[in-house]
């Protein structure tokens, strides 16, 4: 033992001589004093005490070497445990990164839900505008119907006036014929009087004076009759011209009314078509609202299922980490207790160092366990807060739907009150239609950008999964190399290392299985998102086509209304 500690051979010989002298002195003459340094005294062979001491020295050397080997093995086991702990911490950070990615995906889903709610509000605004246009078309139809009834009444009044004027003309013609007959009768009477005067020319002067007076009266009456006849003829001509002009104006008014009635009929047909289109658009908007509600419900269900799956994964990870920590703690404690029992009697300093290492390891494991527990609780709290946020979002969407319904009722009441503002509302509708078209185009561009971003994110996730697979393969290779080196360096703990490697393989398979599940879940979620984005893009295109058709129909109706207004 002294030789192993660095003492020389002379010191050992001196110690042995001193020990021999003490033994000889205590033997009280039963033993002889010999000098081991002299070779002549060694000729007879070694004594049994020296052999026993050498055997004890060799046993102690072997025990010390065995203790040193055990200490080296314990140190290698501690290093392997530390490496395994670092690997577990690295996996835990990877899992945290994956949870952060899932959180980002959840935030993006929430943003999509908010966008869908905004689209729903825009669809409700479009529906209100369509209803407003339908009410305007109905109002125009009513106005045209009222104008048609007024035109019919005016036409009927004009026909009655024409009939009365015709009756008056017939009465004047009758008066003219009667005056002509009276003039003819008077002429006949004049001829008779001329005959009487010629027959009685030879009468008295009084008769001739009477005849002269009668001639003067007859001339005056004839002139008055001719003047009355001329005046009656001029009056009849003027009346006929007035009646002809009135008839022409009535004919023109009748033609205009007929064209107006035809335009009204065409406007009515366009109005009915626009009403049918508005009803179809309203049904389409309601269908889109129902689809948006269904997508919202499916998104909430998917988020709830994702939250439950995340809780289950966190619980399994926490249980696996606790089980691994407890197993490592139990195995390390058992090994350290066993080694401590072997080394305690010979190496007090090594036992203190092992105690310090054990305390540090326990403190680190306790700190890691507390950190894992706190992070798991924090993740559960975050998931609970996310679920609460989703429920709040659902309540907010319900309140938003109710508020939109109330606003729709208010707008309908306001539309009933503002039926007179046709032209301004039409201009506003055209401006709103143009704005909706621009918003639809911008929304389509945004959806395309989101699809490109989703594809880029999918590629990044695929690259990350490939890197994760490479890291898993490297970890497997490192684990196999460490296992082979540990089996080659330490045959005494082969069974324990086999159990540890089996546990590590099981944990690695569990981690791989969890990673595969997360990848499958992420791929399914990515597929659903891409499908939803495609559906939303198709719906936006359909809405844009419908808005363009509506804009063209409204422009045609506006041109027809302007033409009618000009007429």
Automatic annotation (TrEMBL):
Amino acid composition bias (Basic and acidic residues), ranges on this chain: 136-148, 364-381, 485-494, 506-523, 535-552
Coiled coil as a keyword of this entry, yes or no, is yes
Which segments does the entry list as coiled coil?
Answer: 204-302
Q: Where is this region: Disordered?
A: 112-148, 364-394, 485-567
Q: Please verify whether the record's keywords include RNA-binding.
A: no
Keywords (alphabetical) are: Coiled coil
Top-rank lineage group of the source organism: Eukaryota
Comp. bias regions, Low complexity: 115-127, 553-567
In Swiss-Prot or TrEMBL terms, this protein is called Uncharacterized protein
Q: Organism source for this protein?
A: Polarella glacialis
Q: Give the classification, highest ranks.
A: Eukaryota, Sar, Alveolata, Dinophyceae, Suessiales
């Amino acid at each position: 033992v002294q030789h192993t500690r660095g003492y020389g051979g002379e010191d050992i010989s001196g110690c042995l001589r001193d020990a021999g002298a003490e033994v000889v002195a205590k033997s009280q003459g039963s033993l002889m004093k010999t000098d081991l340094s002299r070779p002549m005294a060694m000729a007879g062979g070694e004594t049994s005490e020296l052999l026993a001491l050498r055997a004890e020295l060799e046993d102690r050397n072997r025990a010390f070497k065995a203790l040193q080997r055990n200490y080296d093995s314990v140190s290698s086991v501690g290093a392997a445990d530390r490496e395994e702990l670092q690997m577990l911490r690295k996996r835990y950070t990877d899992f945290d990164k994956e949870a952060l990615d899932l959180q980002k995906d959840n935030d993006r889903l929430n943003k999509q839900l908010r966008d869908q709610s905004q689209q729903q509000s825009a669809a409700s605004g479009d529906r209100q505008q369509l209803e407003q246009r339908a009410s305007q078309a109905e109002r125009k139809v009513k106005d045209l119907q009222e104008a048609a009834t007024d035109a019919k009444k005016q036409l009927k009044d004009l026909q009655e006036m024409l009939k009365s004027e015709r009756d008056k003309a017939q009465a004047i013609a009758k008066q003219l014929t009667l005056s002509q007959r009276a003039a003819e009768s008077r002429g006949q009477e004049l001829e008779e009087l001329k005959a009487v005067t010629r027959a009685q020319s030879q009468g008295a002067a009084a008769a001739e004076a009477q005849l002269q007076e009668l001639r003067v009266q007859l001339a005056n009456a004839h002139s008055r009759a001719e003047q009355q006849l001329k005046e009656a003829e001029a009056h009849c001509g003027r009346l006929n011209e007035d009646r002809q002009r009135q008839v022409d104006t009535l004919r023109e008014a009748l033609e205009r009314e007929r064209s107006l009635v035809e335009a009204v009929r065409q406007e009515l047909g366009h109005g009915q078509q626009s009403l049918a289109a508005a009803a179809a658009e309203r049904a389409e908007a309601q269908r889109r609202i129902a689809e948006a509600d269904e997508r919202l419900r499916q998104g909430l269900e998917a988020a709830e299922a994702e939250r439950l799956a995340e809780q289950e994964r966190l619980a399994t990870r926490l249980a696996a980490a606790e089980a691994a920590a407890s197993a490592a703690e139990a195995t390390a404690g058992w090994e350290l207790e066993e080694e401590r029992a072997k080394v305690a009697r010979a190496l007090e300093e090594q036992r203190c160092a092992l105690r310090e290492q054990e305390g540090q390891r326990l403190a680190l494991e306790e700190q890691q366990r507390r950190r894992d527990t706190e992070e798991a609780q924090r993740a559960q709290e975050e998931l609970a807060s996310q679920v609460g946020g989703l429920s709040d979002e659902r309540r907010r969407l319900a309140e938003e739907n109710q508020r939109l319904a109330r606003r729709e009722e208010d707008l309908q009441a306001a539309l009933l009150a503002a039926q007179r503002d046709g032209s301004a509302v039409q201009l506003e509708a055209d401006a709103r239609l143009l704005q909706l078209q621009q918003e639809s185009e911008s929304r389509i561009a945004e959806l395309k950008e989101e699809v490109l971003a989703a594809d880029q994110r999918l590629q990044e996730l695929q690259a990350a999964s490939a890197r994760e697979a490479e890291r898993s393969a490297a970890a497997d290779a490192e684990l196999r190399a460490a296992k082979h080196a540990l089996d080659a360096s330490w045959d005494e703990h082969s069974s324990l290392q086999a159990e540890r490697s089996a546990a590590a393989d099981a944990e690695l398979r569990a981690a791989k299985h969890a990673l595969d599940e997360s990848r499958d879940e992420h791929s399914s979620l990515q597929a659903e998102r891409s499908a939803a984005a495609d559906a939303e893009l198709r719906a936006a295109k359909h809405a844009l086509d419908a808005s363009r058709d509506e804009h063209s129909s409204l422009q045609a109706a506006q041109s027809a209304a302007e033409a009618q207004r000009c007429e």
